[in-house]
Amino acid sequence: MKAILLAGGKGTRLRPLTVHTPKPIVPIFNRPFLHYQIDQLRQVPEVDEVILSLNYQPRRIEEVFGEGEGLGLRVRYVVEPMPLGTGGAIRYAGDQLTESVIVFNGDVLTQVDVNAVLKLHRERKAKATIVLTPVENPRAYGLVETDPDGNIQRFLEKPGDNEITVNTINAGIYILEPDTFDRIPKDTAWSIERSYFPSLIERGETFVAYIDNGYWIDIGTPAKYLEVHRDIMDGRYSAPPFAGLAHGAPWVAPDVKVEDNVEIQGPCFIDEGVVLKAGARVLPYSVIGKQTHVEEGAVIDGAIIWPNGWIGREAVVGASILGRNCHVGRNTVVQSPTVLGDKTVLTDYSKL
Ligand code: GDD
Ligand code: MG
Hints:
By secondary structure, this protein is an alpha/beta fold. Helix content is 17%, strand content 28%.
């Protein structure tokens, strides 16, 4: 069985972080995001191949996963000649398929039991089964209405404020039958949410909901990106390296250099090669990437700092996100919620 991960979007809402790092491989702590989805797919014994459907910066993603060495699954890449949208991408990647296929939006993190979704799909002999999750505000998602038997009655992508009838949304995880793909036009941009799902309802095909009340997040905005880190550090989503750690404990790589009077408050994550100079303070929910230097008296207060950062003396960095190789000058204050692209240089005494 094959799984398609839709990983071709530009990640515009995460800019400038995604200028050099496509969203599917933004790091969550020190692992590219899609690793978490591949971990989840490994739990489905039938899945032997993951097809990464790519468009934006495909080479960077291929460099990370190779042919899937060490992942326990074969990885194959399908690169669209142009962005085909979610529907066009599925058709393009799945054109040769003859058996049910699992599809994931490449930016959702859940603990949904994919084996159970597959079981429901088969029992109901569905043409498509999609996972739904309840959210507070469905505005930014695909709103899905169901009947008491779990049949989907309506799929409304990005509903307006006056169109919100229920709180269940498309979680971005599907099981689809490839014999339905011929309705998706070839080689033009086409949306699975706006065209394919409504077509199943119009044609009266078996279109089933699997409602999951467990953890769910779409990491596609800076706020959500910060939130997913907090959730893992708080144990709301169980993932390494926090899964085996005492609640609230810091995770500090063995080779981190910690000088005198450094304060480290968990939960936080301090990766390999980090240097914490005298009097530096790392406060809860901070994530400090590889080889970052935190100079004397600097305070990291809930920031996520990608590798090779340099935080000057007495600087204060709040709950912001800093791309790779950022340089924060001495006594600079970065207040949340700031998002800095790779190689940003903030001169001494700046205030953001
Ligand atoms: N290959 C390819 N080509 N992938 C694409 C393309 C494309 O042209 N466009 C988007 N994608 C990928 C993105 O990389 C992402 O992983 C996924 O498809 C969904 O796109 P988003 O841009 O993240 O959509 P969204 O978050 O606004 O809405 C979608 O996800 C919600 C759940 O998070 C919809 O599926 C909603 O219905 C859903 O509720
Ligand atoms: Mg998304």
